[in-house]
Amino acid sequence: HAKNNGRNRFQLYDTAMNAMAEERLQLETDLHHAQERGELVFHYQPQLNLESGRIHAVEALIRWQHPDKGLLAPAAFLSMLEETGGIVSVGRQLLLAACQQTARWQAAGFTDLNVAVNLSGREFWHDTLIANVSDALAQSGLPAHALQLELTEGIFMEDVDAAVDRIRALKALGIAVSVDDFGTGYSSLAHLKRFPLDVLKIDRYFVKDLPNAPANEALIRSILALCKGLGLGTVAEGIETRAQLESLRKLGCQIVQGYFISRPVPADQIIALLGRDWLQAFDLAA
Ligand code: C2E
Ligand code: MG
Ligand code: MG
Ligand code: MG
């Protein structure tokens, strides 16, 4: 009886595994066609400047408008796209789209708007990176200084000298470079000063327990002081509540991003956000 039970369990497990493998394979096949079908798009999430009360930049975040499954977030497919290497060609196409879109927003009157685009390690290290970025700028007419590329700490750990060279080459194009999710990886502070970065994004891990989280407040204060010393701008990520916004403002964070301000939205919803006076909207005007 026990044996039987065990075999049934094994068969159940086996069936479940097969179903998962099949689903994964199906998703991989779908993903293969997603790019040519135009199903991979950017949504944009605003970054608010708390001094001006205006949207300073938008971060482009990949979404998959799947024909049956609906809108998928990167967690559902990005690692697949990275493993297959498909991210390089998708990233190139989307980077151009983001530059063109931002050039249109600028032409609509939001001349100071910047756009931030994420790069995975695979894209950062690819031979065509510099050419892709420079083509996207040339084809879109977007001023280079309006583009920011977001890199994660992992990239900095692989080969420090080569990474420094590559970031220098990017910066030679006139664009800005930021370190994303700062404080969650293994990069050391000593490394930080070696990289010619412009902006550090404070991970939402430091924000989530605010207010009334003295240790996190101390960490954020230190990060802000460090950035000031190194001449880096900062963006705090993951602001979900008004209390978090207020406490970050008190700590001296100038630029904030998170669901409390806006979730990532399709491009056609951005203009409405760019026109808003946010300090007034949040009743934070001094
Ligand atoms: P990230 O660059 O750190 O982007 C921030 C993530 O946090 C986004 O998730 C965003 O939707 C989410 N987020 C924003 N505000 C809040 C908040 O207040 N609370 C919480 N809980 N989350 C918030 P998303 O869009 O799922 O993207 C996940 C990651 O996927 C990104 O993290 C980035 O590393 C990667 N990614 C996204 N788009 C691209 C892309 O086009 N290329 C590459 N290579 N990676 C991308
Ligand atoms: Mg990012
Ligand atoms: Mg981030
Ligand atoms: Mg992140």
From TrEMBL:
Residue stretches making up the EAL domain: 24-278
Superkingdom of origin: Bacteria
The name this protein goes by in its record: Diguanylate cyclase
Coverage span on the entire protein: 382 to 667 of 667
Record GO biological process: cellular response to nitric oxide
GO molecular function: cyclic-guanylate-specific phosphodiesterase activity
Keywords assigned by UniProt, alphabetized: Membrane, Transmembrane, Transmembrane helix
